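Retro notes, item 3 of 5
We never archived the inputs for the LLP complex last cycle. Fixing that now. Sequence and ligand:
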Amino acid sequence: PQTVTRDDEGRLTVGGLDVVGIAREFGTAAYVLDEEDFRARARAFRDDFAEPFAGLGGVDVYYAGKAFLCTEVARWVADEGLCLDVCSGGELAVAQRAGFPAQRIGLHGNNKSVAEIRQALAYGVGRIVVDSFEEIERIAAVAAELGVRAPVMVRVTVGVEAHTHEFIATAHEDQKFGFSLAGGRAAEAVARILEHADTLELLGLHSHIGSQIFDTSGFEVSARRLIGLHADVARVHGVHMPELDLGGGYGIAYTSEHEPLSPRRLGEQMADLVTRELKAVGDGGPGTPAPKVSIEPGRAIAGPSTFTLYEVGTVKDVDLGGGAKRTYVSVDGGMSDNIRTALYDADYSCTLASRRSEGAPRLARVVGKHCESGDIVVMDEYLPDDVTAGDLLAVPGTGAYCRSMASQYNHTPRPPVVAVRDGKARVIVRRETVEDLLALDVG
Ligand code: LLP
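Structure as it came back at the time:
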């Protein structure tokens, strides 16, 4: 985060507070969230990313709540003027609790229940991204029941899948989301929606090509394909859809190997590629307004805002044979608060946070307290060789997909989220307790 530094004692500080005090007050493991960092990133997408689109139809930024959502965060997102992408009735309930403006909410999901559709339409969300033919009928039926016209977008499988710096075109039709372009399904979905004009309002097309992406070439292919369909729909049906959603996926630096583009550079590149593709099909030309573009960054806003604070419990040297050794540093959390290392081989780093050390760097593996050997938080990190029980470690970049994917494995209560701002810390998600867990047991 932006406001993380070291004080004179070598203690990590965030938002003017040192981690030793934070750990004393809130315990460990804890997610420590720098509120100003989160807000600044949200604003950077709203302003810097959006600026190059001024000559086009503008940009709406939907923060993807799946990265991390709680009532306070929903309020910050609303405050900063962003829209919100939710993908379940539960995420929508958080938005409702926060009083998030309904018009600025989009609902996703490949298998929304009738109850979720009803919850969304009754609240008056600004759009529902449609994912299947069954769902078109379901949304139309619920809209009729409620006497509303449901604003919808069509999720298009553009045949592009991108992760990190690579992308693969055409090979990724074989997945569960959306309507494929290849089989003409997306065009069929558009036609079906237009037949339901009394209950469904077609806003536009949507795509999402992946996550943790560092270059925009995959977006160029997806934009080309979406814009091609956009132009076909105008030709065939005489309907000019007002919106084009290119999804989320912008990468962040988990380690020094990653070099993410700034929101401004991303905005410039995305605006350029959308302009090029619109020109190529003669869409958005004189007389036809360019569609408004929307994006759905989750990780790029939430990820860097947070570090996880752990206390070291044990330090163990293991002989690997041939004189080689590995040091295992066990912390008071693990795969229950960060499943990403085990699930995706994700790279994290780690730093001694509670003091200065003159110790020599020693290669360590930071592991959790759970009952399996895959319970690894940081695969390889050089930590001072005097790291010992009672030291605090910080793992940065845990603001996205860590708390939101946390579990209570081994009946481990999930850590709190502590938000820090202007020298003050407050709990925005409280620590779970064993009583919380036991409360679910019946009998
Ligand atoms: N929009 C849609 C339709 C999505 O499916 C996603 C993420 C996003 C936006 C936000 O993507 P972001 O900007 O955060 O990359 N659990 C995985 C990531 C799964 C992402 C799923 N969809 C992880 O921990 O890396």
